[in-house]
Design goal:
679 residues, mainly beta, Jelly Rolls, Elongation Factor Tu (Ef-tu), domain 3, 6-stranded antiparallel β-sheet, 48% strand, flat
Length: 679
């Protein structure tokens, strides 16, 4: 029998394919895990629990495809555009943008089974047939109405100055127990803009932005601009191009499919008539595509190939990377200066082919989805300027099982840890911690809390925005079954800096936070009606609760009063090792009975985790001692925990660690102690 104590101090290979379970000879084997769910690999080597998501609002259409598009004027002024069937909504700094016009409330009361709101104007003239989503604020007395979204009830309205108030599920509100109305308050509609794009076309929209103007293209629509003049003033306009070539970009069957900016030119590609052709505007004049031989003139370039290779993507860095159905090209200048009609040079560097998915840029590297949709490749320059060239290694080679279903969207979160987020067609969210300079290429998968049609919640769209706060923000559309109906919510990943549990990242999904005067009732949780929720109260775990299905309750009653809390859907974070390779007196330990009898876990700002052989055989690690008040939060622990590990002699010896409470978990390393029988 051999005794050993191997070290696991780096997990920078992330979750790796089960097809690599036999490759104990690989260095990546000792750095990999067989499962990594709702955990993020840090570039330092450890893994940390992903933060929960914050509920921002209900989508404007719960039954339409929804697409998120980022709009960045500057890092302190950013927007998420919510496109659904023929309409667009706007989020700014995590809040729904409201219409510029508000309507004064003059009264509110329960009459029979209907809750009525009185306005200074005629609701029928304001809302028409009803059904609009509205926001109420500033009410005195009946403060239960404040800072919540509602729906205007359908006509007929009960009186010329009244309308029926419903919740966002379309249910009647019972306000018989509300505090009496005294004065004030406003009703404001959620800002919406009509668009020409039905849900059938949303996935194929491509966009490029300059200052307050975004160019949007689709092969079935004339190019349009989306211009912002205020937070709640956006305008769609059809672009009138100046051109001297035929067919024009404004003609049917010649609408472009892809767009970007490159060297002060607006660049289009792939029309139905000319799928291999690029169109460059005049320098600094984005509507002008008048060609000529002058350095600033527009130019048209058709990629030569022995087959039709439709342009699928454009990515601008120091060069213009062109992804086509048959391979990847780079456009530069023949004299290493700016591109002109007489100096344009296009070279092909790989033959993998690109999928119609917008690539992401990390520094001077472009990451694109290969034609089949299952591989993510890294398009980068290798070698010196004179003899080097571009290569496209496979970033999914160690974890191809995670992307076998395909990749439909990519989004890049630069801060804090350089993560490429990828979305699968089944709605599973995946992350790739990507730090080439530290040789960190680590995949991890994420299951968002809640359910849909008996399975996991579905992530439908993702987008990222930079901020001035130090962390980029990840937004997502999440589809769930809530109280028996389909609901789509806009949610935002909370910050990774979670040292302050009262105000930092709380580990619940679709969550809401409370901070204020002492209370034992948390109300206004309408969006999670009928759902089992986790509660973090004053930084301490609280027994789970179920949100009432009644339209007016939507509250959690706590066992004690709190001044800060977080409520939301629970989720489990877990990690499972590969089969431990510890060596033995007689070669490898693989295939030999082993017994793990103890583990030292090195943790960082962690509390409340469980360890065992698998999810059915775990022990909770104690963090609270007898001197601590049971109603106060357990301090976050940093250091080593020595654990006795139950279990017998096993061939498939794995270590399983999980967190089921709404608390943080960061594992820096672990050191098992085991005996191996040589047979």
């Amino acid at each position: 029998m051999a005794r050993s104590a191997p070290s696991f101090s780096s997990f920078t290979a992330g979750e790796i394919s089960p097809r690599l379970e036999g490759r104990t000879d690989l260095a990546k084997y000792s750095q990999g895990l067989s499962d990594l769910t709702n955990m993020v690999v840090m570039p330092h080597g450890g893994v940390t629990r992903r933060p929960g998501t914050e509920f921002l609002g209900q989508c404007g259409n719960n039954f339409s495809k929804v697409r998120l598009i980022p709009f960045q004027f500057k890092t302190s002024d950013t927007y998420i555009l919510e496109f659904s069937h023929l309409k667009m909504r706007v989020y700014r700094n995590g809040l729904q943008v409201l219409s510029p016009t508000s309507h004064a409330i003059t009264g509110a009361s329960q009459v029979g089974n209907r809750f009525r709101v009185q306005l200074s104007g005629n609701p029928t003239n304001i809302f028409g047939a009803g059904g609009q989503e509205i926001f109420i604020s500033g009410v005195n007395g009946m403060t239960e109405l404040n800072n919540r979204n509602y729906t205007v009830g359908s006509n007929p309205q009960p009186a010329s100055t009244e309308f029926v108030l419903e919740d966002t599920f379309g249910s009647l509100i019972n306000g018989s127990n509300f505090t009496a109305y005294t004065s004030g308050g406003t009703v404001t509609e959620i800002y919406e803009k009509t668009t020409p794009y039905s849900e059938l076309f949303l996935d194929d929209l491509r966009f490029a932005q300059s200052a307050d103007t975004m160019f949007i293209c689709h092969p079935s629509f004339a190019v349009r601009t989306l211009t912002r003049t205020a937070h709640n003033n956006w305008t769609f306009s059809t672009v009138s191009f100046t051109e001297n070539s035929t067919p024009t970009l404004s003609s049917a069957n010649n609408f472009p499919s892809v767009v970007t900016f490159f060297e002060q030119r607006l660049v289009f590609g792939n029309t139905n008539n000319n799928p291999q052709t690029l169109f460059f505007s005049k320098n600094g004049d984005y509507d002008n595509f008048t060609t000529g031989t002058g350095d600033d003139d527009a130019l048209i370039y058709t990629i030569a190939s022995n087959q039709v290779n439709a342009i699928r993507s454009l990515s601008a860095t120091r060069v213009l990377t062109i992804g086509t159905s048959g391979g990847e090209y780079v456009l530069t200048s023949t004299n290493d200066g700016p591109i002109t009609p007489t100096t344009t040079l296009i070279r092909k560097y790989s033959n993998y082919g690109s999928a119609p998915v917008d690539p992401v840029q990390v520094a001077d590297v472009t990451l694109f989805v290969q034609r089949g949709g299952r591989k993510l490749r890294e398009f980068k320059f290798v070698g010196d300027v004179n003899t080097g060239g571009y290569q496209a290694p496979d970033m999914t080679i160690l974890a191809e099982h995670l992307t076998e279903g395909g990749i439909t969207q990519l989004a890049y979160q630069q801060e804090p840890d350089s993560i490429i987020w990828a979305l699968r067609p089944d709605g599973t969210l995946m992350g790739l911690t990507y730090r080439r300079e530290e040789d960190v290429v680590a995949w991890h998968k994420h299951v968002i809390g809640g359910t849909f049609s008996g399975g996991q919640a579905v992530v439908e769209s993702i987008a990222t925005l930079p901020t001035d706060s130090g962390e980029d923000e990840l937004y997502m559309v999440v589809k769930r079954s809530i109280n028996g109906t389909v609901r789509k919510y806009i949610e935002r990943l909370r910050p990774f800096d979670f040292a302050n549990l009262g105000s930092g990242a709380n580990f619940v999904d679709s969550g809401l936070q409370y901070s204020g005067s002492s209370t034992s009732t948390l109300s206004g949780i309408n969006h999670l009606r009928g759902q089992n929720v986790s509660v973090l109260a004053n930084g301490a775990t609280h027994p789970d609760a179920t949100i009432s299905t009644a339209a007016t309750v939507n509250a959690v009653s706590l066992n004690y009063a709190v001044t800060s809390a977080a409520v939301g859907l629970p989720y489990t974070s877990s990690m499972t090792t590969l089969r431990v390779e510890a060596g033995s007196v007689d070669g490898t330990s693989q295939g030999k009975p082993k017994r793990i009898h103890g583990i030292t876990l090195r943790l960082f700002e962690t509390v409340g985790i469980e360890v065992g052989n698998d999810a059915n055989n775990v022990d909770r690690i104690p963090f609270r001692d007898s001197s601590m008040d049971m109603d106060t939060a357990v301090p976050l622990f940093t250091g080593d925990k020595d654990i006795e590990f139950r279990g017998g002699f096993e061939d498939d010896d794995r270590i399983f660690i999980q967190q089921t409470q709404p608390l943080p978990m960061t594992v820096l390393a672990f050191y098992p102690r085991l005996n191996t029988f040589d047979i």
